[in-house]
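Input sequence (260 aa), recorded before submission:
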Amino acid sequence: MNFENILVEQANEIATITINRPKKLNALNKATIEELHQAFDTLNKEVNTKVILLTGSGEKAFVAGADISEFAHFSEAEGGKLAAKGQELLFDFVENLSTPVIALINGFALGGGLELAMACHFRIASDNAKMGLPETSLGVIPGYGGTQRLPQLVGKGRALELIMTAGMISADEAKASGLVNHVVTLEELLPLGQKLASKILRNSSVAIGKAIKAVNSGYKDGENGYASEINAFGECFGTEDFKEGTTAFLEKRKPDFPNK
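Predicted structure, token format:
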């Protein structure tokens, strides 16, 4: 896959997507969002991709925000369409991907950058990372799911404080609040991401995809997370992975999942 704004690498069933706009601190513009959608969609369909790592190029930023110059002149209607299209094309798309996506936050993750990280299934950060949603300082609110995902991760009060103050928090503060799972040095960030991805690879990708769907359903209006879990649990019994996993357990050996 060849793109203008992102890089995609593949090794040992782990794909790494790097947002590559270092001169713009990897800010999200329309073209980058579309390229990310294409990359995620393609990788999710490839049988040899079991985990996706997402990071930014350089040592300063994961994604420093959205490209404000693209929408500073927008009308109300255009602003609404921008948020709706972005959520559908990238942020909701990533959250509901059946392939696990881990965000490797290497530096600033602000505005749309933090919203993108929060759309990933979980996050690890370098110790130089800074995170925040500064949109209210521009006279707008987070529009790519930030007002919904941040409270889910850190709680309503903490989320409202971050949104209303438009402030930034450190990687350690993010870990303490549950926003990120791990904090390591910048040099250790990619190796830890690969280590966690390797642990995921040992397990059934079919079961993992169903687990992602079941967990997400508990946060969606009109859906019963428990009912979704029951349905997904039952569906697992009809998979080849279930047969291999239970057989391997009874035979006291490691499973060799066909991922079917």
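Checked by second reader. The mean pLDDT is 95.
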